[in-house]
């Protein structure tokens, strides 16, 4: 099993080192190869997604991605900015299904901005369509309006669109994922206003006929945003389009307390995927050794489960993370009174120790706060 390791920028290399350490501790036959991506690749190769990196990602069984981006690249022309690397990988690898679980670990309930009873035991999965919708629809641009409220004025426009096969394949992904969970899908749309999402709703309903064992609900996106903070545990799997999924998945991330805990997966039609933490490159804390590596470590677990068919190894990593949290170890983003603050490396070491049944053994390197 070959894994392309793309650490990227900012905290990317620091958190990736810990995820690789954890993978190596599993004694699986994994071959890893590392390549530059994002700003790091721009510096070394003049492009955020060099051909060598793309070819490696295409040839690998799975891609483990850190994060890309830094404010110092904000003045570069758009095609050369680090973020183009992730967009390019999604496009070239055909990654149309984005899985963003939002799990609130019992040990971190108090870190959520919601009341503990609303989030305790939260375990929902947002499946976002990743390659269509208004983000990619053509035509788009700027022009002089010929009609509307202000004919003759400058205006900008984008195109929202979904084709039947695009909606069908993401609906299948959602129903199949729900079968492995609590058997419920909520399809989020704006069918009351948008033709694109009336079509989305119709197609999802038709696909549902093949999954009579799965419960399907439909919800408007504004209500879904409200229910996510009112009764988040009422959801199991949420499936939605690219733009609504972008917004709702960040909202759901914050229910769990810290974005530093949340993994994600982007899958193609064959189940090959790119796995990355939900957060960005956090340039504000890069190089300080304080970033939380758990989202990346949990992304590696998702990779083992979804692309490499090693569910036991995935379970082992997730249990090790639970054990480390139960032992009271915390990076700064999830630290609270009464727990022990550790750095990025110590957290990775602790997960490795927990894999070997020794949770909390990294405490000797802990700096007290
Ligand atoms: P960010 O997620 O990088 O950081 C937001 C806040 O969360 C910061 O305060 C940061 O310190 C903190 N944070 C993030 N990850 C953390 C971790 N693992 N441990 C502890 N704290 C953590 O978002 P941003 O600041 O809006 O963006 C920074 C850069 O990342 C930008 O260049 C942006 O374009 C890029 N970005 C990249 C991706 C990606 O690579 N897929 C995703 C989002 C943002």
What does this structure look like?
- This protein is α/β, with parallel strands linked by helices.
- It is 38% helix and 19% strand.
- The protein has helices at 12-24, 39-45, 51-59, 83-93, 116-119, 164-179, 195-208, 221-230, 242-255, 294-306, 311-326, 344-355; strands spanning 2-8, 31-34, 62-67, 97-103, 123-129, 141-144, 154-157, 184-189, 215-220, 237-240, 263-267, 273-277, 329-330, 340-341.
- Strands 2-1-3-12-11-4-5-10-8-9 form a 10-stranded mixed sheet, with helices on both faces.
- It is globular.
- The protein binds nicotinamide-adenine-dinucleotide.
- Nicotinamide-adenine-dinucleotide is lined by residues 11, 15, 67-70, 83, 86, 259-260, 276, 279-285, 291-292, 295, 333.
- Nicotinamide-adenine-dinucleotide (NAD) is lined by residues 11, 15, 67-70, 83, 86, 259-260, 276, 279-285, 291-292, 295, 333.
Quick recap:
This protein is α/β, with parallel strands linked by helices.
Global structural class: alpha/beta
Question: What gross morphology would you assign?
Answer: globular
CATH class of the largest domain: Alpha Beta
User: What is the strand tally?
Assistant: 14
Count of discrete structural domains: 2
Mean of all residue-level pLDDT scores: 93
Helix content: 25-40%
| Cα end-to-end separation | 41 Å
From the 3D structure, determine the CATH topology of the largest domain: Isopropylmalate Dehydrogenase
Main β-sheet description: 10 strands, mixed
Known CATH architecture of the largest domain: 3-Layer(aba) Sandwich
Distinct small molecules bound, one entry per kind? nicotinamide-adenine-dinucleotide
Q: Strands across the major sheet, in which order?
A: 2-1-3-12-11-4-5-10-8-9
Which runs of at least 5 residues are low in confidence (pLDDT < 50)?
A: 361-369
**How many helical stretches?**
12
